[in-house]
Amino acid sequence: MFKSFLKKHGMSILKLLFFIAMAIFIVWSIKQEVESIDFVHTIMILRRLPIVNTMLILLLGILGVSSITYYDFLITKYFNLGLRPSTIFNVSFIASAINNISGLGGLTGASIRTVFFKKGDNKADYLDYNLFLIPATSVGLSAFSILSLILYKYTKPIINKYNYLFLILLGFIIYFFIYFFIDIIFYRFKKTEIELFDAKRFTLKIKLLLASIIHCIILFILFFMIIRQFNSNINPLPCLVVFTLASITGIVSMLPGGLGSFDFVVLAGLQYYGIATENILAALILYRVFYYIVPLVLSIIFTLAIQSQRNESNIKVFDVEKLKGFISRTSGLTNFLLSILVFVSGLILLFSALVPGITERIKFAAKLLSFPILQWSRQLSILIGVFLISISREIKMKVKRGYKVTWWLLLSGALFTFIKGFDYEEAIFLTIVLILLRLSKDSFYRRSLPFDWFWTLISSFVVLIGVTIYLKLSHVILLDFLRLHNFKTIFSNGFSNFKISGIFTYGSLIIYIIVMELTKERIKDDKRYEEIDVDRVDRFLRENTGSYLSHLIYLKDKHLYWAQSQKVLIAFEARHNVIIALGDPIGNEEYFDEALDEFHNFVDEYGYKLVFYEVGEKFLPLYHEHGYYFFKLGEMALVDLEDFDIKSPKSRDFRNVLSRFKRDGYYFQMIDGKDLDDAMYGELFSISEEWLKGRNEMGFSLGFMDRFYLEQSPIGLIRNEETKEVIAFASLMPKCDNRTYSLDLMRFKEDIPKNTMEFLILNLIIYLKEQNFKIFNLGMAPLSNVGVAQNAHFKERMAHLVYKYGKEVYSFGGLRSYKEKFNPTWESRYLAYDDFTLFPSSLLETSMLIHTKK
């Protein structure tokens, strides 16, 4: 149990532990610095910032993100993509704004660029594109790192206190020189030929280096301008060093926006140079708002602008329906941005409830409303903020119910945040998000998402810690504010009872999650998610050709999807967040294309990912057209019965086996499964239990011991001529094409003569040949001929190593060698999966499904 859990969640746990370790380290490092902060004073500093200075900082923040677009102008020109400058700017701005908050070393921004730039007129190697782009985004900081080393007298005090910063600084200095050879190293590793020196590529790298330095200069000017608002006498050189150390630490942490790591270094560094802690905190808030949040909001507008330029160039007036159409066409990216805005809306509500409002507004609100109303408005703002953060994933995944719930949460959040202190700024922001959400209504189509116990428990634990920290911080800030402004009435009314507030918030969230889960639409309740009707399946297989695996439907451990007005049948089963289909669809092949679309849409309505297990080569082009990726599972051994000749010289060993068993008093008997009586089934069941030796039965793609299942096909027996005792048996699976049978269950007693199974298989081959069947399928040889090609993908090469060296776990090579003696034709079988990132979990979920008898 524990091993299977570890196999499934091992990588996720490692990732989680990495981020938890990083977060703990940052919290531990920053704890002493934060304890001395006067948060109320920090908020008052932000409130007093002049509007002219705010506008200048706003422009610098937008310019900072805009400067990143120059990378794309240079690279698209190099590849001659034929894109319009406006499109390049819009896409690059969107990608950069999102990448700023996502972390992951630039991969998010690279993915967005690839999606949009693929629509250009000319094709280019987008891997090569990203090999220019991603390394260039950090090389400017490498140049700044060299400068920081030159300015060592300003760097030394900080790295003496935090030694690990020197290692990071040294790493970025080394990276400056590696930058020019990253693409060469990559292609050499991939064993792809590339010129060691290409003048055009080198020139582009130099231009990208200069662009990166310019971008870093703009960001430093923004950073320095913000710091200058709170200390006009600060020297720019120590600011440059602090900015560099903070930025490279943020990148190394891989946390979204360098959250925590960047802030800690800025806090520690600027404190050393005499800036008050409250001023540093206010500066960090401004930097994040104007470099991260504001460009993100603008990126949504640019998303709509891209489509309007391409498809609606003749629009002269605002048209809501056309705007909704633009959003629908860009729903993938738009919903991702909306989910971020919903998440940010939740943070804004929490932040708004955390920090005191303007004193005059609170006093005015206190005159109009009772203190209990103000208190409950604040509490409900916190609760709605937590709910919005929780539901933002459903907005990204386009869940219809998530849209409806979020609509009411945003409306209620805007109302309560306004009531608690006339905070109209937050209310306006939430209203804007509400309008954007309403315009995106048509993009929501999913009924629900699969439930994930693991991540629900982890998320609940993280939220518990977050709520505890939040309420503790809220307690400190609010009490200071109340004492400062003599709001004694609020004190006396118990407004400081934060434990009750925390229990109420967390308890409400748990109830909300439970209610949402219990009341959601489930795929198993959909009438298209059908149980097996044996009579209906019988009629279908009589009228249509089946597959090598179609007989496994009679195990009744699967569900069926009838597509294209019952012309196509797909057998499948759900496991966690994956729907696993068994083999190719069966039925009328003319309708397979539409059937795949229909089935995918059905599965997608409930947020599941789709996997087809053991598909054949014949339909690979069809799966490819539908966007599936492939992994070779192994090869199927097919014996050509017409070519098999037991009397040929090559079959001498086979004849010897047949003769020896006949001489030793054993014979073969074929029976119809429908003739099984209680005594015979009991004998076969006893053999099966002896063969299993306490192991669990498998299922899904493998037959298991079940009376109804065995009754649906012929069974071959090996009997002792003297005692009539059965020592081994094998069941067969018809393909329903009047020419093919497959080997299914093969079970035998512990003490049997050598080569008993070979004797059984030979008799099955002879019997089927006499009955004029053409093909006998001996089953799969897992991982056979997988990853043997020199240029095979990494995952196939790893599978080949398992095949070659995994003898202690399973004799992959031995199974192929055993089947090879029957001189079969080998036919490849594949795993087809619709999400590239889903491969590891697809393999694990399928394996778990097979190893779990229903």
How would you describe this protein?
Keywords: Antibiotic resistance, Cell membrane, Lipid metabolism, Membrane, Transferase, Transmembrane, Transmembrane helix. The chain crosses the membrane at residues 12-30, 50-75, 87-112, 132-152, 164-186, 206-227, 239-260, 280-306, 332-356, 376-393, 405-422, 457-478, 498-518. It catalyses: L-lysyl-tRNA(Lys) + a 1,2-diacyl-sn-glycero-3-phospho-(1'-sn-glycerol) = a 1,2-diacyl-sn-glycero-3-phospho-1'-(3'-O-L-lysyl)-sn-glycerol + tRNA(Lys). The chain is an alpha+beta fold and 854 residues long. Among the domains are: 1-35; 321-521, no CATH class; 524-628, Aminopeptidase. Helix content is 62%, strand content 10%. It is built from 33 helices and 12 strands. Strands 1, 2, 3, 4, 5, 6, 7, 8, 9, 10, 11 and 12 form a 12-stranded mixed β-sheet that branches. The longest helix has 35 residues, at 277-311. The two termini are 16 Å apart. Mean pLDDT is 78; it is low at 4-9, 25-40, 119-124, 307-330, 358-370, 484-496 and 799-813.
